[in-house]
């Protein structure tokens, strides 16, 4: 029993669970370990992985962001439509990054300055931004005029697709920010005790605005890459992404109560979700059952967070 408790509470335990799951899938699922499938697996988790990098900071500071899926879809639409209208891919990318950053800034300002709960704020912006994506496209997919836009997703470096490199770079950058910067330490401090952090001189409101602004910017990066990969701007893209990103973070040991996070855990959480979906696709399991499995994984993530928080004396 003590061993099981240590397994659930420690980062090493999560790694053991991942290794067991990976080994089991490798043995029982045909074609899983092929080079083509491995690259496909990593490409399939790019969007979740990129968004989870900054969702980790939101959760660690005791906040949520339910608008990430809508921002990804909206910024993907903006990138395609602005590129088509201007004839310049660069203009489209800048427009998408600016829109994502602005939505994140609005989220953070409302939460920090107007003191409206993050859950309610981002639930509202989720609907608003998704509505803007649908209105701007009349509810239809928008095709890409310039084939060069496809190269954002199709290009490779050392045989590995560029989006995977971008995800890995963001993992490294935000892992460094979390563990080695004042910004990361302040984020964890706010999640642990916002009032004590304020009394210690931390600008809690400013930190929240920065966290959500960066979240919006990173969602725009994910939206651009997703639009390039699916070769169009899709107003209904990334539906449910927010729950997948939260699941990956919580599976990886990020506390829903705030104050605890680790990038290595988030990476493992992202890979666990990716392996589960990849295995179901290879086994030709119907999408209806995949929804069931995703829901069970989310429930498992919350249960693990509850066990960790209880074991660490936080509840």
Keywords, please?
transmembrane, globular, transmembrane transporter activity, two-stranded antiparallel ribbon, mainly alpha, ABC transporter involved in vitamin B12 uptake, BtuC, 3% strand, two-stranded antiparallel sheet, 315 residues
Overview of this structure, please?
With 315 residues, the chain is mainly alpha-helical. The chain has helices at residues 2-9, 11-28, 35-44, 46-60, 68-86, 89-113, 118-137, 151-154, 162-180, 182-192, 194-199, 204-229, 241-251, 263-282, 287-311; strands at residues 142-143, 156-157, 160-161, 232-233. It has one domain (9-309): Orthogonal Bundle (ABC transporter involved in vitamin B12 uptake, BtuC). Helix content is 75%, strand content 3%. The protein has a two-stranded antiparallel ribbon. The longest helix is centred in the last third of the chain and has 26 residues, at 204-229.
Helix content: over 70%
Strand content: under 5%
Strand order of the biggest β-sheet: 1-4
Number of domains: 1
Q: How many whole angstroms does the radius of gyration measure?
A: 19 Å
Distinct helical segment count: 15
Outline the biggest β-sheet.
2 strands, antiparallel
Which architecture name does CATH use?
Answer: Orthogonal Bundle
Residue-averaged pLDDT, rounded?
88
Level-1 CATH class name: Mainly Alpha
E-strand count: 4
Label the structural class: mainly alpha
Uncertain residue segments: none
Beginning-to-end CA distance, first to last residue:
20 Å
Can you tell me the overall shape?
Answer: globular
CATH topology: ABC transporter involved in vitamin B12 uptake, BtuC
Order of helices and strands: HHHHHHHEHEEHHHHEHHH
């Amino acid at each position: 029993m003590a061993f099981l408790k240590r397994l659930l509470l420690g980062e090493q335990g999560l790694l053991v669970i991942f290794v067991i799951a990976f080994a089991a899938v490798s043995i029982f699922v045909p074609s899983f370990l092929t080079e083509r499938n491995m690259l496909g697996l990593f490409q399939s988790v790019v969007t979740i992985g990129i968004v989870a990098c900054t969702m980790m900071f939101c959760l660690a500071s005791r906040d949520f962001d339910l608008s990430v899926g809508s921002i990804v879809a909206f910024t993907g639409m903006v990138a395609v439509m602005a590129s088509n209208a201007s004839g310049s891919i660069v203009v489209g990318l800048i427009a998408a990054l600016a829109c994502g950053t602005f939505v994140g800034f609005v989220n953070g300002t409302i939460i920090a300055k107007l003191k409206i709960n993050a859950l309610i704020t981002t639930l509202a912006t989720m609907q608003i931004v998704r509505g803007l994506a649908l209105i701007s496209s009349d509810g239809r997919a928008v095709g890409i005029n310039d084939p060069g836009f496809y190269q954002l997703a199709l290009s490779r470096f050392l045989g590995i697709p560029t989006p995977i490199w971008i995800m890995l770079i963001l993992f490294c950058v935000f892992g460094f920010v979390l563990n080695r910067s004042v910004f990361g330490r302040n984020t964890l401090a706010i999640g642990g005790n916002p009032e004590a952090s304020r009394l210690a001189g931390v600008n809690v409101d400013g930190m929240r605005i920065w966290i959500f602004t960066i979240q919006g910017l990173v969602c725009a990066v994910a939206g651009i890459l997703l639009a390039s990969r699916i070769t169009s701007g899709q107003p209904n893209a990334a539906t449910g992404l927010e729950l997948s990103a939260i699941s990956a973070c919580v599976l990886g040991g990020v506390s829903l109560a705030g104050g605890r996070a680790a990038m290595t855990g988030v990476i493992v959480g992202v890979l666990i979700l990716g392996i589960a979906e990849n295995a179901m696709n290879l086994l030709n399991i119907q999408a209806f059952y995949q929804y069931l499995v995703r829901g069970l994984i989310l429930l498992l993530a919350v249960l693990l967070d509850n066990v960790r928080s209880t074991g660490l004396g936080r509840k």
